[in-house]
Specification:
Mean pLDDT: 87
Number of domains: 4
CATH architecture of the largest domain: Roll
Structural class: alpha+beta
Number of helices: 8
Low-confidence stretches: none
Number of strands: 12
CATH class of the largest domain: Mainly Beta
CATH topology of the largest domain: SH3 type barrels
Strand content: 15-25%
Distance between the termini: 85 Å
Strand order of the largest sheet: 10-11-9-12
Oligomer: single chain
Shape: elongated
Length: about 325
């Protein structure tokens, strides 16, 4: 009984360590030696025990990847889960959301944690996401993994990107983030050499550029230059009227400057780091919203609405 218990405890410790991150054989051996010594157990032949236990875990359905000069990596666990009905519903909801957001492989892996049967399905819940691609596709997944590595390294790097007109070019990027917005996954990056139209000095908000993940053709090398910039921001003041006068800010960057429910208006000041997303948000409010400051942004949106009006009246 004691021997079986020790083997189980040893296997569980291996799984715990691999669940944290991939680990090389020698690193695993050192950590397991420390664990055994703390338990007052013999740590002799720990690397041989590790090899035998990994083989047994694979026989039990645990997918553990390994190769010469590469770390052990836990790809998929086969550990049994005991979940309450509420936990099953929450897990199914997460799976359902991921699937509809374009992460089918991730949703499938999550779904394998539990066999969803019965009444766990949220029948009344529907999603209206329309991702441009399945982000679980092999090429897209590789691009995302490479971007995650660049973001972790925090050094300038290069991508080869094709725009909506089919034109491709290299982009040198500084600080970057992966952002999911309105059902689409973007790479949000500061571009050091971008020439801005409204700002004579760098850094400025127009140097924050959005890249569709599905249009990134390749992620290239990383330099030794550390990220120097934070994402520049801009302060925008806008007014909402009519039915939107009782709007309550829900973003941490927004604050109410003035509100008058009798006259049906509210003035909000916000700090934004992406003009494109702010314009999208404001334009969806139609005639009930207008930019007050800065003037150049107010005029830009005014001209866009004027052009839209002309397009309708010319038909």
């Amino acid at each position: 009984m004691s021997s079986n218990y020790n083997q189980i405890a040893f296997a569980l410790e291996i799984l715990k360590l691999l669940a944290e991150k991939p680990r090389f054989r020698q690193e695993l051996g050192d950590l397991l030696t420390q664990h055994l010594e703390k338990q007052g157990k013999s740590s002799g032949d720990v690397l041989q025990k590790l090899t035998r236990t990994i083989a047994k875990l694979r026989d039990c359905g645990f997918e553990i990847k390994s190769a010469p000069n590469c770390p052990y990596e836990l790809i998929e666990s086969n550990f049994p889960l005991i979940l309450s009905s509420q936990q099953k519903q929450a897990l199914y909801l997460a799976t359902y959301v991921l699937s509809n957001m374009g992460f089918s492989a991730e949703a499938e892996r999550l779904g394998r944690l539990y066999d969803f049967l019965g009444d766990e399905h949220p029948h009344q819940l529907h999603f209206d996401f329309s991702p441009p691609v399945d982000y679980s596709g092999e090429k897209i997944r590789q691009i995302i993994q490479q971007l995650e590595q660049r973001i972790e390294q925090q050094c300038r790097y290069t991508i080869y990107y094709q725009n909506s007109r089919g034109e491709s070019r290299l982009w040198d990027l500084d600080r970057s983030e992966l952002r999911f917005h309105n059902g689409v996954l973007y790479l949000f990056s500061f571009v050091p050499d971008w020439k801005s139209y409204h700002f004579p000095k760098s850094p400025n908000i127009e140097q924050n550029i959005l890249f569709h993940i599905n249009r990134i053709q390749s992620v290239l090398g990383v330099s030794n230059t550390r990220w120097f910039y934070d994402f520049p921001t801009i302060k925008i003041r806008y007014c909402m009227t009519g039915a939107l006068a009782n709007y309550q800010p829900r973003r941490s960057t927004e604050q109410v400057i003035e509100q008058n429910l009798d006259e049906k208006f509210i003035i909000i000041e916000t700090i934004e780091d992406c003009l494109f997303w702010f314009r999208q948000r404001l334009l969806q409010y139609g005639a009930n919203a207008q930019v007050l400051e800065p003037i150049w942004l107010r005029e830009q949106i005014r001209d866009e609405l004027k052009k839209s009006y002309e397009n309708y009246t010319q038909q």
